[in-house]
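Case study.
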Amino acid sequence: MDSTVIRIRDVVVSYREDVALQGVSLEMRKGEFLGIIGPNGAGKTTLLTVINGLGRLVHGEAWVLGSRVNGTSRTALRKRIGYVAQVQKIDPRLPINVRETVMVGCYGRLGLLRRPTRAQWERVDNVLEMVGIAHLARRPIGHLSGGEYQKAAIARALVQQPEIFLLDEPTASIDPQAQREIMSLIQLIHTEYRITTLLVTHDLRQLPLICDRLLLMKEGKIWREGAPESMLAEDVLSELYNGATSAETASLCP
Amino acid sequence: MDLSIFQYQFMQNAVLAGLLGGITCAVIGVFVVTMHLSFIGVCIAHAAFAGALLGLWLGFEPLIGALLFSLAAAAIIGPMADRGELNPDTSIGIVFSLMLGLAFLFMGLMPGARSEALSLFWGSILTVTRHNLIFLAITTAVIVGLVVAFYKEIQAVLCHREVALAVGIPATFVFYGLLFSAGVTITASLQSIGGLLIYSLILNPAAAAYQLTYSLKRMLLIAVGFGVISCWAGLAISYTLDTPSGASIVITSSVIFGLATLFSPKRKVKRWRQARPAG
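After joint prediction, the assembly is written out as follows.
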């Protein structure tokens, strides 16, 4: 039985004059954990948006969970894909609390004209407990710190019961302690549920512990891919990050 | 105050128009304020005004013109703001200035006295017709019904539009639905409140409610309460002091906003945070 859940062929994505992805091809098996690294503007986020149908293809095709990603299928696909974006600036007066924000993850699958059930609210509470922010459930979402907000975003993606988990720099702009907690949480979720996961990050320290495979992206292309240990060699990273010094790459390395 | 005035049909209509207009404008205001789309609302209000003036000039029903223009404005500025072809402020500003230009053009081309056109400027809740009231009642019922039916989708789009899209909610459809609802509401309230003043009644009650709660449901209820109070208190002030009704309503809603901001618990939190020593 074919266990491939993501198949991308020769994909090109362009934003006006800039080509964000140039002929990218990728395959992923069910339950695989793929790390994606590379300098800013390498096309890492765009690759994730191709998978959940938020990005528009100029050329090539993408098949996800057995469906070709196009205008017809993408809304249905998004209900099966959990997406955690980078920390965003949130209006502190926004009239929604953490528990309600996490419940939004259920709304796609729930469908129109249906109210969340008691069982779904219990699931939200359980997931908040799991990610360690149950005590913040009633707090306005705009009052959370960056680390707490990312835990809420992960909780929201989890209540969605996703078959694919897309994480776009979940540890960017947060303090080292919160970074460690979030990476441990991601590892725990993958160990527990074996969700096919793609993690875009600049934090390379914990990648060898959690990734099955590492993708190195540069200038809109997959530059190299392989086992994390070989991809995180100092000379490889120096070349990837356009001649970063050994001190700089050492600060990124495990 | 002499309450015998309420025996008259025109006053009963005005009270009813205040209730319906206050509810609908406040609900739309909650969408606009929460999504930080204030300028889009102003733009749609001016489009409705221009459309109504076109109707007056060419001799067809002004409300039809207002409805067509406001929906067209929503259909143009929605994608402009979304796609980022231009800076949203720039694109909305261009449509806004075009609508204002058209409004003055139609008014300038209108032959004879322009008293009816000017009444669309300022509005007159005291001369609202049965026909207008029916349109306003239907609009209110539809808007409130849609909010109740699609509350969870609306909440997701208002507070986390990108997330709503990513979890499979038809967020773009909901967003355009909100813009079109704004267009219809502005059209329905145009005659009673007036093209220049309608937007204050949309913005002020919702902005006041935004200062007072972190719950969207409560915000909707508080905004509706403030909207209706603004209309009724404005009407009472207009009757007592013999001032223009639209202006009285808008000034009342502004005073409510000022008081809400002054006593906002959110502001106290902010002040406390600012007072905390750094680090």
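Observations recorded in class. Chain A touches chain B through 35 residues (CB under 8 Å). The mean pLDDT of chain A is 91. We will return to this complex in the next lecture.
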